[in-house]
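Fig. S4 source data, part A: sequence.
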Amino acid sequence: MDRQYQQYQQYQQYRHVMGTCVDRRNRLFWGTLLLALLLLLLPTLPFATEIRRDSADLRHFLKEGGGLVKPGFGFSPESGLREGEMQIHGTSIIVELALDSPSQAKGLMGREVMPENRGMLFLFPQTQPLSFWMKNTLIPLDIIYISEAGDVIDIVQAEPCRTRQCPSYPAKAPGKYVLELNSGMAEKLGLKVGDNLNWHWR
């Protein structure tokens, strides 16, 4: 009888140990599965996509356009975009860096004023036909189209547009960068078509 009781106790102990092991294995399995699903879904979430795109664009910008602009001025209080500094014919211009599609689509829309020594620099992933418009833009601008080599290919004086039908201002040739400054700043800085800015930017 005692032997049967001991065997029963051993059996119960065995069940307890095996049940605990199985439970741990189950928890480990489901935990691993959940983590794998999260990792698969993370790139599809909008905020993750924007963070990844923004970081990738910035790394690409620093690698490909590092000779054009000096980053490191923090973030613009108006737009929240990263800032950089450009030297144009000896004048320092602080630029907001429009590196992703949402910031490029918005541009300077809704901005009622912009200090004289500031602007916005748009960086595109490759040389392409470029055309800007002034929809919902409240201040007149100089739109300066720039090639990958840093050559000014076109300068357009654009007026604010508050109507539904706004004209476009296409560049005369494909480009990779676009600089927006306050109207008249290009002339004040001495910028003209054909200028090469590579050695004047930092």
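Fig. S4 source data, part B ends here. Confidence is low (pLDDT under 50) at residues 17-22, 42-66.
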